[in-house]
Every structure is written in structure tokens, then in C-alpha cells.
Amino acid sequence: MQLLKDKIRNEAKIIDNRIIKVDNFLNHQLDITLFNEIGKEFKRRFAGKEITKIVTIETSGIAIASIVAQYFDNVPVVFAKKHAGLNMNQDVFEAKVYSYTKEQEYSIKISKEFLRPNDKVLIIDDFLASGSALMGLINLLSQSSVEISGAGIVIEKTFQEGRKRILEKGIQLESLAIIDSIKDGQVIFK
């Protein structure tokens, strides 16, 4: 997706040749025009799939998933919570996830009332690196017996091998900007 690649090339900040900081358009300040194009592109890539729910992880995935949902007939968006409050149902599906950027493990949870065995789920997230977050979501979703129709990722870093882990599960994986490497502060796209 050229618009996204241009945004990354022109506006992303590279930290230590391993972290791509895109908070000025993707996961802190949001470029809604870009998000609409992301939604259209995911709809095109998953056009042959029946989708009844979109699932993501808080926080960065929520805004993206919400815009994407509009292109799938406004299906509900369900997000896995990292911090369950007192008001969250205690009957949950739960999995562990290791955060690459925060360098810590945490639990993600989705209330069982929001996932049914007849659901056909599209996973949407902002990044795929080592695959820990996506694998945690896949583990959580497998507990609910939903059908995973695919996974849509905005930015993928192939040099961290998350793709391999997801494809081994037999899940259709579509990434809009695939980064092969980062050298001298420059992003090299696949």
C-alpha cells in the first residue's frame, strides 16, 4: 500500500534500528484519511471471506479495527483487554502476551459473551514483529472455537519472524507495509 509506505518513509522515526515509531499517524495521533484507505485495502484483501467480528488488542489496534469494521458492513469490533477493570465480566478467555516494545509479559482477556463458536473473526493489529501479540490472540480465540478468517496487519517487520509463526497456523496473513530491514535509520521495504 503505497500511501502507507510513503507515510512510514517520510514521517516515521527509527529508534536503535529496531523500533519504528509511527505515533504521529498510526497509534497516538491518528490519520483518519489513511485509516480509511487501510479499511478499504483490508476489505479488498479479505473480500472472499465471511467476517462476523473483528478482533484486536487494546490500545493501538482499536482505532484501526473500528475504521476497518465500516468496510465489513459495520461488524462489531471486540478488543482484548490488557487491564480488566472491576466492571469486566469474570468469565473470560485469556492468554499471555509478551510485549516487544514494553519488554514485559501481560495477560489479555475477552469476555466469553462476545465470542461465539459460529463467529468468523478477522484479526486486525497495527504491528507484526515477533508474533507474540498475534499468537496470544490466536490462542485466546482458539479457546472460544471461533473460525479465524484471517489476520490483517498494518506494518510487518519480517526480520523478526512473526510471519512464520502465523503462517504455520494456516491463517491467511495480509500485511499492508512489509519491512525487510532497518539500516542506518532507513526503512527497507520488501
TrEMBL record:
- Family in the record: Belongs to the purine/pyrimidine phosphoribosyltransferase family. Xpt subfamily.
What is the main EC category here?
A: transferase
The UniProt record lists the keyword Glycosyltransferase: yes
Q: Which GO terms describe its biological process?
A: purine ribonucleoside salvage; xanthine metabolic process; XMP salvage
Name the pathway.
Purine metabolism; XMP biosynthesis via salvage pathway; XMP from xanthine: step 1/1
- Give all residue intervals belonging to the Phosphoribosyltransferase domain: 23-172
Its domain of life reads Bacteria
Which protein, by its recorded name, is this? Xanthine phosphoribosyltransferase
Q: What is its EC number?
A: 2.4.2.22
State the function annotated in the UniProt record. Converts the preformed base xanthine, a product of nucleic acid breakdown, to xanthosine 5'-monophosphate (XMP), so it can be reused for RNA or DNA synthesis.
- UniProt source species: Desulfosporosinus acidiphilus (strain DSM 22704 / JCM 16185 / SJ4)
Q: Which UniProt keywords apply?
A: Cytoplasm, Glycosyltransferase, Purine salvage, Transferase
User: Where is the protein situated, by its record's location annotation?
Assistant: Cytoplasm
One GO CC annotation:
cytoplasm
| Molecular function as annotated in GO | xanthine phosphoribosyltransferase activity
Q: Which InterPro entries match?
A: PRTase-like, PRTase_dom, Pur/Pyrimidine_PRTase, Xanthine_PRibTrfase
Reactions performed catalytically: XMP + diphosphate = xanthine + 5-phospho-alpha-D-ribose 1-diphosphate
